[in-house]
Design brief:
Subunit structure: Homodimer.
Keywords: NAD, Oxidoreductase
GO biological process, one term: alcohol metabolic process
Structural class: alpha/beta
CATH topology: Rossmann fold
CATH class: Alpha Beta
Strand order of the largest sheet: 3-4-5-6-7
CATH superfamily: NAD(P)-binding Rossmann-like Domain
Family: Belongs to the short-chain dehydrogenases/reductases (SDR) family.
Order of helices and strands: EHEHEHEHHEHHEE
Shape: globular
Enzyme class: oxidoreductase
Distance between the termini: 33 Å
Length: 214
Amino acid sequence: NLVILDRVENPAAIAELKALNPKVTVTFHVYDVTVPLSETSKLLRTIFDKLKTVDLLINGAGILDDHQIERTIAVNFTGLVNTTTAIMEFWDKRRGGPGGVVANICSVTVFNAIYQVGVYSATKAAVVNFTSSLAKLAPITGVTAYSINPGITRTPLVHTFNSWLDVEPHVAKLLAEHPTQSTQVCAQNFVKAMEANKNGAIWKLDLGRLDLVE
C-alpha cells in the first residue's frame, strides 16, 4: 500500500504510480500539515482502521519562501513534528504498538545554510535535530528515524522564491547557477537510503551521490 497525503490531488501522478506496479494499492487523502494535531490524529485513525498497519512515514511537505515566516515554520517543522507525534499513538511500543520508521526529508542547507533564506535553512536544521532525537528514543518507543538531505534538485520549489527581508532579490537565479540533480536521480538514492534503513542516519543526496554523514 502507498498512501499519499497532500493538499491538492494530482490524478495524473497517482495514475503513473499505479501503472508502475499494479500490485500496489495507491490511495490519496487531502491533508494540510498545518492543521491541529487532533485533525492529524483523526486522519491517521481512518488510515490505520483501513490498513491495520503502516510501516513507514515519509515527511516530505515543505515550502521555500522567507516572506512567509510563520507558514514556513508551520509547514517545514511544526507540521512534521505534529504528524510524527500523531502516528506515535499507533506505533509506540509502550502502548502496545509495533514500532515503525520515520524518514524526514530535510536539505543540504543543514550542512551549509543558504543564508539568504535563513528561516528555511533553520527549519531544516531543526528537523535534523528532531530526527536525531527520535532515533535515540528508538529503544523506548520502537520507532526508528533517519533524515534525507537532498542537494539542489530540479523541482518547482527552487524556480522562484523570496529571501528574508529581500536581502537578495535574485536568490533563485543565483541558486540556479549551482550544479543540480534531477528528481529521478535523487529519488533513486532515496530508495537506497530506505533500503539501508539505518536508524539515526543523516543521508546526503547531492549531485547523484548518496553519502552517510558522520
